[in-house]
Amino acid sequence: MSYRGGRREKAEPFDHLVKLLVLGDSSVGKSSLLLRFAENKFDPNFVLTIGVDFKTKVVECGGRRIKLQVWDTAGQERFRTITPAYFRSAMGVMLVYDITNLQTFLNIRRWMQNVEEYADPSIVRVLVANKLDLQAQRVKAQVSRSKGEDLAREYSIPFIETSAKGNVNVEEAFIKHNEIRLLSVARQTKKQNLGIGVANST
């Protein structure tokens, strides 16, 4: 069982497309995680996501090339109404909170309600505690690792701590915990012997 990140190139060949969503309150670092994963970059200048944005990256899993299309959804309340439309055809979702902001952790339950209401029951869910590099602020915010682990255990989903700034566990958050889904897709396409060559890349 192996996987590796691919290069971001125009018209890069792939065998199957997998859509992932990144959910969470504004300022938890969703866009930074996405930028780090897709382009291995970190921009300290915060830019608020308006509506939705997405990036793509091709990875190898189970001997197949899987194109991950990762959607970054706005965390502001006024954009909650547009979020449901993006659950359509999504195979995985990352629920992200900021370890220095208790309210973003508490609001994960609201985001989970959206997932349960709008997403396919088979969607792969992952709980992500971001900004691991800010340990001092974490202590003040009282958002311990054990709280995250307890919440993940309650929903029976994987839990992982990340830092987009320090590039800690970012690849693992996007790929490793979606590996079951990716392998399922890879095996399905192999079984069906779909002759998908170079597809249009966005």
TrEMBL record:
The keyword Cell inner membrane is annotated on this UniProt entry: no
Location relative to the cell: Endomembrane system
Keyword entries, A-Z: GTP-binding, Lipoprotein, Membrane, Nucleotide-binding
GO CC field: endomembrane system
Principal location class: membrane
GO terms for MF: GTP binding; GTPase activity
Similarity-based family: Belongs to the small GTPase superfamily. Rab family.
Name of the protein: Ras-related protein Rab-8A, related
Source organism (scientific name): Eimeria praecox
